[in-house]
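Encode chain A's predicted structure.
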Amino acid sequence: MPAYLPPEMHQQAGEWQAPSARALPFGWTDEALAAVVGMAAQFGTTPADLMALFWSESGAQPRINSAGLAQITTPAQDDMRWPSGAWAQIVAGPITAQLAGITAYWQHLQTRYVRATFASKAAAWDVPVSTVIYAYHAFPSRAANATGAQSILVSSPETAYKNNAGLDQTHKNTITVGDLARRIASKGREMSADPFGQSLLSRLELVAQSGPPSLGGIWANYADYYQRTTGQAIPPTTASDAPSRSHTWLPVVALAAGAAAWMFRRR
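Encoded structure for chain A:
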């Protein structure tokens, strides 16, 4: 049983069973896993690598705290012009809605900092796409100046280094792009060896067999959900990152429509 598992999950879990015999851990659903498949297709990486990134940040626990799956920080929320407390509200809702917010943030990173795609930057750096996503997710302005795996993103005694020292697995007092690649690889192995991680990955593989979902009108659904959650229109910075309707985009919030209605009924 993972040490980070909250007490209520310990009570619910009992002896681990195969995914077909029990509900998925941490509140995950097939719809949410399908959204991860869509995210991977959108950004040019693999669903398993995205789950390893989430495992690194939160143990793949969507509601581990108010920062959620990907640990969206206050500066990131400010960069998105999300109202104070809006992200915490989204994290408390359906996982698919949280994934929509993460995707919107990553789209924003591509537009503002990468000025291209994560996939094209990965080719230039000669690293996996998930590594590029992690670099810009954690250190956007520093990643913009990186050129490859050896590029230093932060170093001691910077506060950003102290807050992320666990990424420096060789204790060299710097965090490089290569460190993030190694982190995702190691967390992927760790997740595969963990009973709850195995459950998620096994179901993810089954869900992925249907291919990445592709739904239209996604941004309109996201804007509607955001407004109903926060009471405000989606901020201009986020709206400017919206893909065109003709683009095959992540159907996260469309998948969340039913769950969103449930959420608001409970209020």
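The CA atoms of residues 223 and 234 lie 6 Å apart.
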